[in-house]
Amino acid sequence: MTAPAFPAPEVLAARQKLVLDHFHDEVRQDWDDVLATFPHPHYELIPQMVIHDGNDAVRGYYNYTRTAFPDQDHEIIALRHSADAVIVEFWLMGTHRGFLGKVPPTGSRFRVRMNAYFVFDDTETLVCERIYFDTLTMIKQLLGGLDMKKPSNWLLGARAVRGLLSMSSAKPDPALTNTVAPAFTRAS
Asked: Which residues fall in a coiled-coil region (predicted)?
């Protein structure tokens, strides 16, 4: 496998603008504009081993996450370019105000460091947003915000743990588990 050529500066600038517009439109919750950044929306959430593929599935994902965290926002830490992707490190934060799957709202804030790979094909079309983050950090913050010294929070804490356990039993998407290692050529 030979490394692809690194794109020209104007290609990198166009990719970066598209990715920053994508982030901006997500915060504004303008889903039409976000979805316009790729002709076939495709998200891969690596911590959950879940894929949201296509317009309806991605809109459902947006609705689901903004119901759970209506004030979801981000702070970009760094943005880097690779031969086929823009890689963004960022803080994602929000307040747990709605159900996250079967996890009832705790009212807790979270702030989790993440990486997102915005992958482009050879026609410079955005084909995937692949997201990596530490789920345990988020869970600790959502549950850690509950004062368990108060008996009024015991039932909520138990329901939240039960909801998290039910989410952990979901089968991973085979497209994320059935991978093939690339064949690399050694430099002489």
From this structure: none
